[in-house]
Amino acid sequence: MVMGGGAQRWKPAETGLNRATVLELFFDLAFVLVLTQLSHYLVTHLSWRGMFETTVLTAALWWIWTVVTWITDVYHDTNPGLQVLVTVLTFGVIAMAVAISGAFEGQAFMFAGAYVGVHLVRSSALLVAERGKATKRPPLRILLWTLASAPLWFVGAALHGWWQVALWAAAVLIDYESAAAGSPVPQLGRSIHERWQVGDEHLAERYRQILLIGMGDAFLTMGMAWDASPTTLLRGAALALAFVYTALLLQSYFRVAGQRLAESIARSGNKARVARLAVDCHLLMLLGIVVSSAGIDLKIRYPLQQPNGFWVAVIIVGPVLFMLGRILFGLLVLGRPSPARVIALIGLLALTPAAGVLPPVLTGLAVAAILAFVLLPRISKRFARLIREPVLEEE
């Protein structure tokens, strides 16, 4: 994923927003639309195939976010070529986002073309930028692997049903695994992970930002579900429950591990490996947020309706995926899993049979209670501190 060893490092500004931060936030704005489209797609395609399709689309778009984040990590923020490149790639993401609703129907070629186009433009631009340098090999290898997986996207777009899903899943898997292996190409070798440049503070901050954007998707879903439903006291309670659930996800991520990723990368003997594994952990958590947003929609629209199997899957799988990703992330950053989160994961799985008979709002309440269990020790300590110490001190 790293595009060369000769580029200047990303440097955070001492105060305010620097040019790189503004550029990255501009790129992230496209993912507000992406995540909203993904959760809406799942809501309108509640089936096993719909869930698998949503997973493939999320993985493809997450990979684009990842590679652009690594580009801005490697290249200097004042590089005008980088600003143009990221702006062009942002439009490619927008094109993919608007095609999500018909990605497995009439807009398959638009989605596939935008995905392949983003990677071809990115690799070609970096290959031109590194021309004449020893560091031109990494973008060349990545370009060749992009060309290798591109036919799967277009052949898949021409097909329908499970064949399309399978070919697109294989294409995404090729992109992930080739990068993990250092994009090996005969005669050109492969990237040595230990030599990759990694900006610990920058990458840690970028992961925090994209998780916050995911929480924003949950808020947008709350608003859209509320507007689409009659206003009742029960739906008001479901809205409040959805907010509490989202806040618990946020606190579960940021507590300890979310704050120590930069430190973990910095002290690792193989920084790129830690950063690369963080990609997979955050993919699970982001997918968990997308599925959770679909569950929020169901809980607000149909708080007391008898659930079907797919409703149960959405309401339970969302927090399960997030918690699994968070457990693996804690293991990566802290070197040990959180016992409370492991217990919470088991509790979420054990809740599945009951969720088949409970109305969505009660299942959501049980899920929130399980997530609160993870934070209970810290919440108790905070309340104890509030009792001992005044919130505001007199002048």
UniProtKB/TrEMBL annotation:
Superkingdom: Bacteria
Keyword presence, Transmembrane helix: yes
InterPro entries assigned to the protein according to its UniProt record, in alphabetical order: Low_temperature_requirement_A (IPR010640)
Keyword Acetylation on entry: no
UniProtKB keywords: Membrane, Transmembrane, Transmembrane helix
Protein name per Swiss-Prot or TrEMBL: Membrane protein
Chain ranges passing through the membrane: 21-43, 55-72, 84-104, 142-163, 233-254, 274-298, 310-334, 354-376
